[in-house]
Amino acid sequence: MTISNFDLHIIGGGIIGLATAVTLQARGVKVALLDANEVGQGASLGNAGHIATEQVFPIADASMLRHVPAMLLNPTGPLRIDWRYLPRLMPWAMQLLMNMRPEPFERIHQALLSLNKNSLQAWQGFANQWQLEEWVQVKGSLLTVEKTSSVDFLITHGSRLNDIGVANELLTREALLEREPALQDNQLAALFFPNTGHITNLKAVINQLHHIFRQLGGHVIEHCHVLAATNDTDGIHLTTSQGDMTASKVMLAAGAHSKALAKQLTGVNVPLDTERGYHLMLPHESTRLQIPVSSMDRRFIMTPMQDGLRLAGTVEYAGLDAPANMQRAHMLLQQAQPILKAPLDASDSVSWMGFRPSTADSLPVIDKIERVFLSFGHQHLGLTQAVVSAQMIANYYFDEDHTIDPKPYQLARFK
Asked: Do 297 and 317 contact (CB within 8 A), yes or no?
């Protein structure tokens, strides 16, 4: 099957690929969107639904190191490393450690800040343009603490963020409970972040964008697994589960599955690994909370959605092939219950596991190398940065000036 009457083939129909497909198709680019399964069914559907513009620090910092032994030994803790996967994880983990040093840490932080500063406005404009407002809510979010020893850290964190323009307000226990009456009074304080949002129905957003893309003339090929890619003088040859294709230009947006194809298309070995994330959906709890609530001490988030309360979080390093350990999804219920006054209704709950693509420097790869466009590796911030990434790819595609300095996200940093 040769499809060459397209300007661009996008490999990966998650929120990154889909937002870019809609953005480019609307500007007259003929786009074919290829997905190994169905559009938007991976991490894009299972994430916490939080437009997390307040998360402007790398995924790991030096203060975490002292907790690692405990995390390794606690099977129900927020971080788990499968010891069988450790040898494969080590090269990536070593680079992650190197990036915790003050100089790279600060550089990465500035680059995350730069993307996130533009993310909410980008989402609001996008939601407005494509009739997504019903599901894209901007009512802020909360970060709570329950350990007395964490209160000072929370206050320091809040003022550090305010200093760099990430607006937040410190709430006393009383002010917190007034804002979210369902919370237990063991929550001692919180930061309220006004410039964050959440998506109340990820499926509806994905379906709407999918529909719009097709309406605009975009072409979707589902269950099309790209097995190999070669970049030749006469085009880019894709070997797929639906036969061979020749593309004039390609964009790689396959999330955690991007590593091998990135190497084939560019020759660069990106230090990318996967953080397996879990969620538990409680369908009878859609009205419990008003806005997303994260616990700093318990390291997880609760997001109210139209079809229930989503408990999400936990990081597991076990690669792309190990079976899901759904006990990790169900343990989120044990984390959530002590934070809330009334017992949670966990009947008909649905558990999920998916892959977050994390580079060793916590930054996505957003770049153009001749005929190859790259947009992957957004770690926990794929949903947050999806629209801003799509705009950056459009700038590359049409050779326009970038509003965000593109250098920190370029592939050359790994050469």
From this structure: no
Handedness of CA 382, 379, 322, 82 (dihedral sign): negative
Give the contacts of 274 (CB within 8 A, at least 6 positions apart). Answer: 256, 317, 319, 320, 355, 356, 357, 358
List the chain domain ranges: 8-140+195-414
Give the Å distances, CA to CA, from 144 to 100, 172, 293.
25, 10, 7
Of the candidates 58, 82, 32, 364, the residue with the CA atom closest to the CA atom of residue 219: 32
User: CA 115 to CA 118: how far, in whole Å?
Assistant: 6
CA distance linking residue 322 with residue 371, whole number of Å: 34
How far is the C-alpha of 402 from the C-alpha of 395, rounded, in Å? 6
The number of beta carbons lying within 10 Å of the beta carbon of residue 285 is 22
* Arch. (CATH architecture) of 8-140+195-414: 3-Layer(bba) Sandwich (3.50)
The rounded Cα 183 to chain-centroid distance in angstroms is 26
Per the listing, tokens 């379906």 go with: 207
pLDDT in tens, 208-254: 999 999 999 999 999 999 999 999 988 999 999 999 999 999 999 99
In three-state form (DSSP H/G/I as H, E/B as E, the rest C), the secondary structure along 36-83 is CCCCCCCHHHHCCCEECCCCCCCCCCHHHHHHHHHHHHCCCCCEEECH
Q: Which amino acid, one-letter code, is at 307? A: D
Taking Cα atoms as reference points, which of 350, 383, 379 lies closest to residue 365?
A: 379
The residue with tokens 């959906």 is: 281
Q: What is the dihedral of CA 30, 366, 43, 216, to 10 degrees?
A: -20
- Is residue 394 within 8 A of residue 23, CB to CB? The reply is yes
Q: Which pLDDT score, from 0 to 100, does residue 4 have?
A: 64
Q: Where are the beta strands (DSSP E) in 346-410?
A: 350-359, 365-369, 372-376
Radius of gyration of the chain (CA): 21
Torsion angles phi and psi, residue 239, rounded to 5: -95, 115
User: Distance between CA 13 and CA 243 in Å, rounded?
Assistant: 18
Task: Please state the φ and ψ torsions of residue 337, each to the nearest 5 degrees.
Answer: -55, -45
Residue 319, pLDDT > 60, answer yes
Residue 88: its H or E element: helix 86-98
Q: What is the value of pTM for the model shown? A: 0.96
Give the C-alpha separation, 265 to 260, whole Å.
Answer: 9
Per-residue tokens: 156:
């320091």
